[in-house]
Amino acid sequence: xxxxxxxxxxxxxxxxxxxxxxxxxxxxxxxxxxxxxxxxxxxxxxxxxxxxxxxxxxxxxxx
Length: 63
Known about the structure:
It is a single chain. This protein is mainly β. It has no helices and five strands. The chain has strands at 21-25, 30-33, 38-40, 45-46, 52-53. The chain has a five-stranded antiparallel β-sheet, with no helix packed on it. A hairpin with a 4-residue loop joins strand 3 (38-40) and strand 4 (45-46). The radius of gyration is 13 Å and the shape is globular.
């Protein structure tokens, strides 16, 4: 699926967010990555098979 050399990580790979962006829509809060993953600005993800990955921002320490 990926035409890049070296190839982008697959949608199943732990580092799937490292794939190149094919389409960015910051006004709508999402981007389509080369591996078919839709990455949302809140760090949630939608994988090509329909699996949803919940947002996983790092926790901010309480002051």
